[in-house]
Target: Transporter
Amino acid sequence: SRWRQLLNTRNTSVVMTGPLPSLPTCPTAAPYLPCSLLPLSHRDMTRAVAKEGEPNGVPAAPEGIKQEEMEERGQWSSKMEFLLSVAGEIIGLGNVWRFPYLCYKNGGGAFLIPYLIFLFTCGIPLFFLETALGQYTSQGGVTCWRKICPIFEGVGYASQVIECYLNIYYIIILSWALFYLFSSFTAVLPWATCNNPWNSDLCVDILNHSSLDNRTLPANVTSPMIEFWEKRVLGLTDGIHKLGSLRWELALCLLLAWIICYFCIWKGVKSTGKVVYFTATFPYVMLIILLVRGVTLPGAAEGIIFYLKPDISRLVWMDAGTQILFSYAICQGCLTALGSYNKYTNNCYRDCIMLCFLNSSTSLVAGFAIFSVLGFMAREQGVPIAEVAESGPGLAFIAYPAAVTMMPVSQLWSCLFFLMLIFLGLDSQVHHFSLTWNSSAMTFSSLSLQKGGMYIFQLFDYYAASGTCLLFLAIFEAICVGWVYVHARENTHCQPGGACRVARLPGLSAPLALDMSAFCAPQAVFLFSLIKYTPLKYNNTYVYPAWGHVVGWLMALSSMVCIPLYAIFILLKTKGPLKQVLRLWSLGGLLILSSDGLWERPQRRCLWHISPLRRQGRVRVVLLQNAL
Model:
């Protein structure tokens, strides 16, 4: 009833049925005017209710709004800081240990076909969408969705839940890398021999060919690299039901990692921008050094051929889609937060295209560096390359350390490799930490440092921040922007080069780019991931109990359920006919205009969110559909 009274009462207000008066265009020198709103069509305008007697039917700004001081959001000191920060966020451990293995697993060079298809149909559009949203609204990963479509604000909360999970378990990898780095400062690498206190009778030095002559080896023989990883570093137990005690050496490494992350962001975006000059470039120096060293080793050619040899029969399209979303940090809120520190007129279109190709190129080059070394390792051991190629922690902490022991000055190459891992992980972790920094993250991280913590780590990696969750969020991101920003308004753009070019991609219309590719591609992969679901196993041997899978799916649902729950909550708390309530809460933000038709606030404050039907003093609010 209140809704009808507000819109239908004519004795105290003037109901505008025509278009609003033309507002000033967006000058280049004064980019604070959101020029992508102009001009608004009849379809864009829901209703405008103003006090009788006001010029042009435009209400004056509420008392006190002009004088209200809002905390200004910081900005990057230079464009290079933004580029390096985003590069450090998206180029991480997944480029080094996940992409090369997926490329080998899914048919070598044939894997590049679905990878490139998903890159152009899903990765680049969503990457550009999130970065541009942050830059245009100057908001983080939650409030930006409130500005364009309040009913889909749950997308922001879901991304923050995933960020919390990443913040908890991603830093564990840094603690492992720090442990290996400190262990490298020895005369003989501790994982090179079986003469250590933690080695068992089943340990065989496979690198020493003379020790294998005239010996009958048992079936369950292990290598010193595996025993160092499982017994010295992890202290691995029999299963997740037996977590064991805390590994204090790893706990100290974790504390050091948290301290480093804190000092990288303790002064806000200004300090982070300076840190990335080193943390984002140093891994490239290390990667180039390791690549040059790898391709000069005997057997490197066989490893590279094995890496790129096409095999269509082993191709799995689902892996390409999940790898794109994970490696590009899509649906995690980081890109929106980093883009929000940009200047309003920054050409994020060009930046995003460049960063996307840089990320994929890094993954491809990392594959050459890794598989050249694995080819050398396979030749030295006299085994097929498939037996030494592993994924994830197995590649970084077993296969590559084993190859390092075969090189001259192995301590040097070991230090360089783990320094590269540390800085790759540090860049990503700093941005996770800056979004969700809290004391609970360190508390839950300590669970993965117990002797059975590896099983918990795998649960987080497989379920909590997996491709299933990211694909689900990507679908709703495309729905939200495609519905509100594209279909519900005309394509009105500001001058070329500005951030207002969100809705246009090269050679593609906005509905095609966002609705067809960015929606259909994640949806198809999401359905296939559910159909082809396989329960989690550790090292292809340990089968998790049923309650372990239940815990994993609860972690996955904890993020995905935020979207429908928030939409239901916001609809239930708003009184009125469902059709009108849905129309109201799909508005992209409520704007307050001054009496002369000008925006009273600068650009950072012009999108002012007000609860529906709420009065600000004695002034009615102008409701504009799709304010973004």
